[in-house]
Amino acid sequence: MSKVFVVYWSGTGNTQAMADAVGEGIRAAGKEAEVVDVSSASLDDLKGASAFALGCPAMGAEVLEEGEMDPFVTEVESFASGKTIALFGSYGWGDGEWMREWVDRMTSAGATVLNGEGLICQEAPDDGVLSDCKNLGEQLAAQ
Q1: Cα separation of 94 and 122, whole Å?
Q2: pLDDT tens track of the chain, all 143 residues?
């Protein structure tokens, strides 16, 4: 069984709920999902994977969390070429600028962002968003 990694950072639990739903979708598609907080994630695992998911909420002025997630994403950029990456996260304000910039970063690094955009939701994910996250996981598992 192939393992698909879902690495996330969550401050309030909203992005963690999204990550767990992405993991459910991966499992529903018959793959093993490893859903892990960025503080416990292995860059080597992602280097060896052809596809994986990254999740982070918008912070401050619509940026990635700067203490752990942004440095991790910077490392991912160094080996992202040829990878398929699903991006997701929640936000409390703004219009999703942080996700558009994140998609641009990954695309510029040579990755293919699944569906060409990140999956975002405002505040806590409702049942519809969680369903979208499961679908995202299923799509990722098919890569």
Answers
A1: 9
A2: 579 999 999 999 999 999 999 999 999 999 999 999 999 999 999 999 999 999 999 998 899 999 999 999 999 999 999 999 999 999 998 899 999 999 999 999 999 999 999 999 999 999 999 999 999 999 999 99
For every residue of the chain, DSSP letters joined together read: --EEEEEE--SSSHHHHHHHHHHHHHHHTT-EEEEEEGGG--HHHHHT-SEEEEE---BTTTB--TTTHHHHHHHHHTT-TT-EEEEEEEESSSSSHHHHHHHHHHHHTTPEEGGGS-EEEESS--HHHHHHHHHHHHHHHT-
Residue 120 · residue 137 · CB < 8 Å: no
Find how far residue 123's CA is from the centre of its chain. Answer: 16
Closest C-alpha to 136, from 107, 115, 110: 115
Q: Is the pTM of this model over 0.90?
A: yes
- By DSSP bridging, strand 32-37 and strand 112-113 are unpaired
Report the sign of the C-alpha dihedral through residues 131, 132, 134, 135, in that order. Answer: positive
